[in-house]
Write a structure and sequence with these properties.
- With 206 residues, this protein is mainly alpha-helical.
- It has one domain: Tetracycline Repressor, domain 2.
- Helix content is 74%, strand content 0%.
- It contains nine helices and no strands.
- Helix 4 packs parallel to helix 7 and helix 5 runs parallel beside helix 8.
Length: 206
Amino acid sequence: MESAPAPPSGERRRDAAATRRRDAAATRRRLLEAARDLFAERGYEGTTVRSIAERAGANQALLFRYFGSKQGLLTEVLAQGGLEQLRATPPEELFETALRSMLTRSADAGPGDRSLEVYLRSIGGGDETAGTLRELGEEYQRVLAGLSDARDGALRADLAMAWLLGIGLMRTVVAREPLAGAEPDDVCRLVLGTLSHLWSAPDQQP
């Protein structure tokens, strides 16, 4: 019985190149996911390039090839998480979406956007992280400020952000009960009901 003819050399090269691209994309995705989880768990300063590569099952050299540096990796983690979610979410749904994502993630340890956890644990990381984290905070403030017609809309947005991050701090970092174990729906009901007044309260400035 005759064997099937081997594919032409050009076709073999194309197949090999396609396989390398698939492998590279998978490795890149694993590195991003590993960095996202480690930054959220340990903060930027507490996470090493070695630990990211080990969790991803990849060589450290590949991390530098794909992202340039640990800072470059942080930038992409936040771009694919917080900034992507922010730009895809209607402004009036942003606070609730971010709050529920944080509450649900800390409740069941499932996958998802962990950018606020990364922000909380990395905010004191110094100049290396300051620009990237500041961009995320400023984008949130800009969108939330637009929810109020008041002249102090930026202040109201900062207050909303302070509350959101404070909830994240108490629930995921400090793990203080009863907030740490509270049902996400219960937290959202209480927080969102009160937050609506922040956007609608009269502007008392002269």
